[in-house]
Amino acid sequence: HILPLGTPDMLACAWRFGAAPHPRGVAVAYQCAHTTRSASAPSAWRGAVDPVIRLSRASGNGARTAIVTRGPISSRGAAFLSTRRAHTQCSDTPHLPLTAGGAQRRLSSTSGEAIVGSRSAEPSVVFSGIQPTGTPHLGNYIGAIRNWVRMQDEPGDHPRLFSVVDLHSITMPQDPETLRRQIRETAISLLAVGLDPAKCTIFQQSRVMQHPELAWILGCIATTGQLDVMTQWKSKKHARSSPARLGLFSYPVLMAADVLVYKTTHVPVGDDQRQHLELARTIAGGFNHQVGAAVFPIPEAVVPPVAARLMSLREPENKMSKSDRSPRSRIDITDDVDTVRAKMRKAVTDSRGDVSYDRDNRPGVTNLIDIYSNMTGKSEAETVAEFAGCNTLQFKEGVAVAVSEHLAPIQAEYRHLVANPEYVTQVLDEGAIRATAMAEKTMIEVRRAVGFTI
Questions:
Q1: What is the mean pLDDT of residues 131-158?
Q2: Hey, what's the torsion of the CAs at 203, 207, 209, 214, to 10 degrees?
Q3: pLDDT for residue 219 is more than 80
Q4: Which of 134, 184, 347, 377 has the highest count of CB atoms within 10 angstroms of its CB?
């Protein structure tokens, strides 16, 4: 069995389990960088597996291949590999696809990490979502929504879907009237910052019933072990005095359904969502394996060129968040000039009076530099040079002015949309119709693959 390798610096390794065959077939494919040594394998595999491949160079196109020389694959496993994607089936291992012809590509983050996928250079379907917590704050805008606007404006007519994921919001108790208001405020905000329903689909998640339908099916693929290691679950279940709810435990499966129901190929993500996307990739591979067909593409992460993560104004060691009880910890995109100035004056810095970029030792000042740079388009070095000789109070005033000037046109559009609620309703109605049509097309294939269609 020949497994093509996409790039010279990635190595596909196959191990044969010694005494006990793997439940999905004797041979398991696993990708790691540069080495076949057991140290590169997951800890649970060390000492229990035997490397059984050698590297070769195929004639003609010079593609690198890994040839399995021992450990025959079962007929079911061979059929699965014939789909030209091999995935590990252990919950603690990455599921990175192997594709024919070495046509893999990389999407690199600023930290140098890469997620390897099997898509072509141009995306086919883009999806992302935001919870309806009301008006987004500056961290939401810089870290996610502004990137969505850039993606909708890129050339190409491929689908781009952006959802108000209200089903996720009820993992915690919600007041119905408050939730209704926040759904509308979030939708208005997406339109105000520049999302255009003529270029993308903007919709309310709960109005597309294929999302929870697929979530149940995928929940029968995912394991409790995979969900129990989710970082947000581990942090929240111990922080609550009352018993944790099932929705809080299983919502990553719904997130996977959100992505896969549109056969999404590219997902804009921040650092805190990478783990959820990896689970979606794992579940997609597991479903494809179980039904013996490549129903779902393996979605890839799209990381902004500059991975901006704004921190709390009150506790700069923590990210800016709506969950913080203090409204002074964040700047909402609807905050007026006086509110922005007041919050900036109270922003935590340090006892030094100058402006310098040092995330480890001066997180407060560094956070303000990040905000100013993102509002003006200037680099951190240019920002520091501009405020050389200024004290932190003068710097805070400069940051407040930059924020207010940047948000002014967004706030004007927000007020216009608030005054025209019928238009916002129309956008969500039409978005739900388009999203439902796409989702139902996928679900017809899923139902047939599972065996529901008789």
A1: 92
A2: 30
A3: yes
A4: 347
